[in-house]
Amino acid sequence: MAAEGHNVDATLLCIGRDHGHYFQKKTFGKPTYCHHCCDKIWGMLTQGYVCEVCNFVCHEKCLKTVVSFCSGVALQLIKNPVAHTWSEQGYIKRHFCCVCRRRTEDQLSLECEVCEYYVHVECQDLAVSDCKEAATYVPNLDKAAQKQHHHMREGNLPRDSKCVVCKKTCYSYECLAGMRCEWCGQTAHALCYRQMSPECDFGVLRKIMLPPNSVTIPRTELPMEQLLNIHGIQIDSSTRKVSSPSKITSDDVSAGSSEEKEREDTEFLRIYDGNSSLRNQVYRTASVPKTATVQQIRDAALRRFHIQDNPESYYITQVLNNGEEEPLEDPVPLRNVKRPEGRRAQIFLRFKDDPEKAVVKVYGGWLRVPVTFCAITVTKETLVQDVISEALQSFGLDGLTWNRYNLIEVSLDRGVAERTANPQENMLQLVRNLRKDSLRRYHVVRFYVQEKEDPHDHAVFVGNLPVSLAQRQYERILLKLLGAKEKPFTAIGPIYFEYGSLVITFNTPKAATAAVQKLQNATYEDKKLIVLCLPNVQVGCYAGLLYKVELSKYPEKPMEGGYLKSCLTSSPDEDVC
Questions:
Q1: CATH topology of domain 1-198
Q2: pLDDT, tens digit, 9 for 90 and up, residues 510-531
Q3: Distance between CA 85 and CA 233 in Å, rounded?
Q4: Nearest CA to 54 among 69, 41, 65?
């Protein structure tokens, strides 16, 4: 679930006027609350509207003012995706899942330890990777023009939260409702949210907060959990259930006919979105009338996989016993569907590929260019290097310098995963393989242009070493732990002798990544090392705050006074820390 904001771009996807929701009129059999205005939908047999994908409930009068995007499309609308850092699994009381909007105390759930995003374990695959972006420094941008925006999160507000606009209570224990900025803590009703100032001042923490636009994070191939040395519960993707938000149950909606008649008139289907899902037996189920047309089956399959696209670009096939496929045809396509003994009918959702060309969106997120993305048409002869060159020209950069950049394939499925594409790789074939393997994954994969060279040094903090040793002794210990004869790092220091900790600097991301992986698994004198990757603080763009710090108030401790002093003694125009 995502709300309107600076990190959400509705132009990335054609979603219509309902914010991607698939609203249907429903008659409720028990008291229900509107997720937009928080008021009760009055009466025992009253009508409201429910999104069939994410369970968003609202009055008819609230339909035109909804600000929350459906969880089926929200993942594809994020401009700069940032992975969440998940806690251990548990039953979390008095909170709601941000995907299916149901209570988290009824199922095993997770919480992002950074931005308070709550999700059921079964809904985790559909979680929106929009964690707080803590490093947004842009080198060539005017420092006075850089503004900090709110990072709004829907629902799960603290008790007694007051709306910053109307000053009335805006929290709810009945449903996922209300908005809260994860930076400054301001809260508001969804109705009042658009009246808030878009700029964030960090609230009560403004005097001690280091703004994201003064920080950069060195590029590494490590996931965020490993960068921060956070070890949560790892869920095996091969055994985990497929995510699918819970539907409105029969208890919530009055049934129009008996269960027996529904069973007779309804067909349950297993739907696969590609070869990979069939191979791994990862599917989603959908119920459709036995007299459903091919178009109705196709539309139901698109909703189950949260694909918001032109339906005419897709078609349905059935899986035969020999592994081959056969297109479903009207007038009654389910009449001739093959059903394995004792199992449900199995069908494929497929994309109508054009063998000659395809349109690819290329994003410039890390380049911080004015446009979010550019659309490039690729053909059989188009290579990755050609796509990079054309994208650079669209971004207003020199296309002849394509060899200084990489094309990064970023998958938002189950977090944020990256892969560097080979410059000689055929782009059309790459896109077709993604579609054939998994349509769901294809729709959450993006291509970003990124500079090959990282202009920043890579600093790594290492702690839990023996105290009060000489610098040369620390170097010998590190070389032994890294299994290297020559120093792979460019510098060592500052060293906190009384605490047995130090900072080592590398000039390449590959060397830093290899060192972090070895040191995080290493022990010395039966003590496990503390290893953290450090960000770069751009002192020049926030010198006012940093130079006002009175170092005498801070004890000489690792990561506090001593390391801050080493930052402040550097030139304000340099990248430090």
A1: Wheat Germ Agglutinin (Isolectin 2); domain 1 (3.30.60)
A2: 788 888 888 888 888 888 998 8
A3: 11
A4: 69
